[in-house]
Write a structure and sequence with these properties.
Elements: E1 36-44, E2 47-52, E3 61-67, E4 81-86, E5 96-101, E6 107-110, E7 120-124, E8 128-134, H1 142-155, E9 158-164, H2 172-176, E10 185-187, H3 196-205, E11 209-213, H4 220-227, E12 253-256, E13 268-271, H5 285-290, H6 293-296, H7 315-320, H8 328-343
Parallel strand pairs: 3-5, 8-9, 8-11, 9-10, 11-13
Antiparallel strand pairs: 1-2, 1-4, 2-3, 4-5, 6-7, 12-13
Helix pairs in contact: 1-8
Length: about 350
């Protein structure tokens, strides 16, 4: 006769023994209080190059590292300050683990196009965006420059417009478009060490972390090689058929600038590959208006959902009443140009 349910007790339950040496899982993460910190200067196929500054008895050194499993898919880009454990000696054939990414002061982002919801972080921690454009061969692309300026404002970075090949075309007419934006600029031919534009550029880069962006063929790699001769970045020519440059730089790379006039710190430049487009899907139009202090308060009377580039926009009256200052009209025109660049309506 079988046993009824009331006859069973805990002594009848068989317990499978656990594995020897197994430990219960825990959500507590190691603190890595002994982590060594440095700046990411290059990324290549799952390996990060990190510059660790000198400290105590340790000299400055370059460490190769991988991302620790505990970070998952955490983004780590050039300019990030990271903490590492393991072999951080920098000796050949050694590999450390990145276990921590410090908060970023600035983030330069882009999307593949204006409909792509996925943001791509290009560089972290930079404070200046250097937009490089040729005055000729190839012709300037104002729409791309406008988009880079929007990205700079969004990232909280100071923009600087550098016009190359100044020996081929004058800069005055082109620069008139950007005068209302108060974007600092300089022109250079990058022909020799005596070039005044190159000397001025060195001064503006000194002591800062600057990102260089520009489409292919504008002379960006030539500029980098003039600033940091040992960089040896590949250079290329403009295609005679398409009028576009060929990609030469293929990766993001941080390069230390030589000290200027005896200063202890020369600063850094971060070279990026030539770009064909600069998507701004992550930037809302109202954010762009916020970068124009003299216009920002004028949007309070705009109708709901105003694009700030339509007949009912309150900014026209704001400017007409002189509330935006003597240059209000020019500033409003520039704002709307950036908004059209953001939306793609300028073609």
């Amino acid at each position: 006769m079988g046993r009824s349910a009331r006859d069973w007790d805990e002594s009848d339950v068989r317990v499978r023994p656990g594995r020897r040496g197994s430990r219960p899982r825990t959500k507590t993460r190691p603190k890595h209080e002994d982590a060594v910190f440095g700046m990411v200067t290059a990324v290549d196929r799952g390996r990060w190059t990190v510059l660790v500054p000198a400290g105590g008895d340790e000299p400055e050194r370059v460490v190769t590292a991988m991302r620790a499993r505990e970070l998952g898919r955490t983004s780590i880009v050039v300019g990030d300050r990271v903490g590492m454990v393991g072999d951080t000696s920098g000796r050949r054939d050694t590999l450390a683990r990145i276990v921590r990414v410090q908060d970023r002061a600035t983030v330069l982002r882009r999307t593949a196009d204006d409909t792509d919801p996925v943001e791509r972080v290009i560089v972290a921690g930079a404070d200046q965006l250097v937009v490089v454009s040729a005055l000729a061969d190839p012709e300037p692309r104002p729409r791309l420059i406008d988009r880079c300026l929007v990205a700079a404002y969004d990232a909280g970075m100071d923009p600087l417009l550098v016009l190359t090949k100044a020996d081929l075309a004058p800069a005055e007419d082109f620069l008139a478009t950007y005068a209302p934006l108060d974007v600092p600029y300089l022109a250079t031919s990058v022909l020799d060490e005596g070039d005044d534009g190159l000397t001025e550029l060195r001064r503006r880069l000194a002591g800062r972390i600057s990102v260089l962006v520009g489409h292919s063929g504008v002379g960006k790699s030539t500029l980098v090689n003039a600033l940091v001769p040992e960089a040896d970045r590949a250079t290329g020519d403009v295609n005679d058929v398409t009028g576009r440059g060929r990609h030469t730089s293929t990766s993001v790379l941080a390069l230390r600038l030589p000290p200027l006039d005896g200063d202890a710190e020369g600063g850094w430049i971060i070279d990026t590959p030539g770009i064909r487009s600069f998507g701004l899907a992550h930037v809302e139009p109202d954010q762009i208006v916020g970068y124009f202090a003299e216009l920002a308060d004028g949007v309070a009377d705009c109708p709901r959902g105003c694009s700030h580039d339509e007949p009912d926009c309150a900014l026209d009256a704001w400017v007409a009443q002189g509330k935006a200052g003597p240059r209000g009209e020019g500033r409003l025109d520039s704002l709307r140009r950036l908004l059209r660049a953001r939306s793609g309506e300028d073609g």
